Amino acid sequence: MIGGSPWTRRLLATTGVIGLVFLGVPILVVIPMSFSSAKALTFPPPSFSLRWYQAFFGDPRWMDAMWTSTLVALVASVAALLLGSLAAYGLRRGTFGGRDWAEGNFMAPLIVPTIIVAIALYLGLAKIGLLGSLAGLIVAHTLLNVPLVMMVMGVAIREFDPRIEQVAWSLGASWRYTVWKVMLPNLAPSVFAAWIFAFIGSFDEVIVTSFIAGKYDTVPKKMFNELILEVNPTITAVATLLIGLTVLALAAVTVILARAGKLKQTIV
Amino acid sequence: MSDIRLEGVTKRYGPVAAADDVDLSVAQGEFVTILGPSGSGKTTLLSLIAGLNRPTAGRIFIGGRDVTEATAQERNIGLVFQSYALFPHMTVLENVLFPLGVRKIGGAAARSQALEALKLVRLDGLEGRRPSQLSGGQQQRVALARAIVFKPDILLLDEPLGALDRKLREELQVELKQLQRTLGVTTLLVTHDQEEALSLSDRIMVLNHGKTQQVAAPAEAYLKPANRFVAEFLGIANFVGLDGGRTGLVRPERVRLGPGGVNGGRPARVIEAIYLGQMVRYHLAIEGSEGAPIVAAVPFVGRAWQAGESVAVSWDAADIWPVT
Ligand SMILES: Nc1ncnc2c1ncn2[C@@H]1O[C@H](COP(=O)(O)OP(=O)(O)O)[C@@H](O)[C@H]1O
Ligand SMILES: [Mg+2]
């Protein structure tokens, strides 16, 4: 794969490094800035303090946004996990016609430009009277994360020998008992990974949320709105917390999948 | 323990009939093998009997009960696959306890029943291991123990020894046969290996393109095949011309060889002599014949003919079986 002449290889390496720097530097800059004692955004920070973290945790509006984000991400990720796993199971194990069509339908939110999904959800939720409601937000986030779950769980289910299930049935185990006692214990690492991806996916979401959340603020939505008004260093504290959360979650996924020997298959 | 009866069982996948109007009766305690090339519909037939699949047409009876519409859970069948299909997260003992747990049998009774089954497949002492810590042969023994521990009405085995190397396969064939006889359980085994079919079974059902070709005892199917396909699938077949343009089958063991120039044999030349241990296999060109070489399998006693030598080939008229 990484064959070719030394020249191409060098070009590839250089591009890779530039890409990494481009992505990494803002992250590295934002972290020290969040611990700055200065009133405005300056780099490097004159001295260190926790004042922007205090500003964040002391602001009820930020805390409200945090609560909304957490609640939505928790409910939507669990719902997406359930629906996405069932869909993946049906698509991988079923033999009915129109499976490709059904899969395309479930995967659409990942493929269609987000802005289109946002508009579609805006119109759809308005029609059923859920626009601007917490329930509407949860429905939207569930929909957006189903494809992620389906991707992770689809690989895991395909790798799991269908004959193991068939034997369990022949031994007298019901479908539900088999899923619970045979499938889930073996697919647990992938279930966990899928749930983390869905949780982060929801917690990070800003475009669709901005369209449909109405008076509700999630953390990313509020960050975006604050940035438009004024550049407030509180943002850097929030950003650092989000980075920390993401890194921790991905580390957990990596450790668990690596221990199950599933890392390579899932992150293709 | 029960008998199995298939009546006109058909399974269509679009235009393909994976099982085509199959009739079969397996008596209580009998060992029947379904033999056929890859894609002939063996697995399909087994999965229909196991209830993992519904037939397009026909009825299936187990122990006289019509189970055509019954679920896999309701059929009380022991199932073993080539891929072992053990539960990877459970120990050997937990795997064998699984069907008992489902049947609400627990505690010491279940444990002793499971250990008994493990003893039958000669795995005592390994009950704490995980499947990944066992060899292929051991894993298949666990699968077997799990399939018999709940005293199923019938046992279905889909190429159970297909993943094992030759020596182990032959060992397990003997054990499987003994186990089946000990338990007296009605058994249906699927294989594409004709030696396995001939050595294990009370009767063989030969399958091709989903259609039954013949159901017969091993010796009968071998010596008196119903058609050309069965003749060729069950071993080496010599086809010789008969009166009236018909064709006859002579098995290599029934071909006799004598020194060339002797009366009472057809003159032939040895094309190839293959030494097989107890037997030597000769490929022989009959003088003046354009047909395929005749194959003879002759016990090796002292001397073998060499390629290029002239010999006389003969067979008894009683050893010819007309085929269509
Ligand atoms: N789920 C299925 N969908 C479509 N065709 C199938 C399916 N299962 C089996 N077949 C077809 O049925 C035929 C018999 O398959 P199978 O029973 O697996 O044969 P065997 O076990 O003898 O190798 C094959 O042509 C196969 O392609
Ligand atoms: Mg098969």
Can you describe what's shown?
The complex is a heterodimer of chains A (268) and B (324). Chain A contains twelve helices and no strands. Chain A is mainly α. Chain A has a single domain, classed as MetI-like (MetI-like fold). Chain B is α+β, with helices and mostly antiparallel strands and 324 residues long. Chain B folds into two domains: 4-230, 3-Layer(aba) Sandwich (Rossmann fold), CATH 3.40.50.300; 238-323, OB fold (Dihydrolipoamide Acetyltransferase, E2P) (Beta Barrel), CATH 2.40.50.140. Helices cover 26% and strands 33% of the residues of chain B. In chain B, the strands form four sheets. A six-stranded mixed beta sheet of chain B has the order 6-7-8-3-9-10, with helices on both faces. Chain B has a five-stranded antiparallel beta sheet with strand order 13-17-14-15-16, with no helix packed on it. A four-stranded antiparallel beta sheet of chain B has the order 2-1-4-5, with helices on one face. In chain B, a hairpin with a 2-residue loop joins β4 and β5. The radius of gyration of chain B is 24 Å and the shape is elongated. The A-B interface holds A 161, 163-164, 166-174, 177, 182, 185-186 and B 47, 50-52, 71-73, 75-79, 81, 83, 85-89, 98-99, 102-103, 143, 146, 150. Bound molecules: adenosine-5'-diphosphate and magnesium ion. Adenosine-5'-diphosphate is lined by residues 13, 16, 18, 36, 38-44 of chain B.
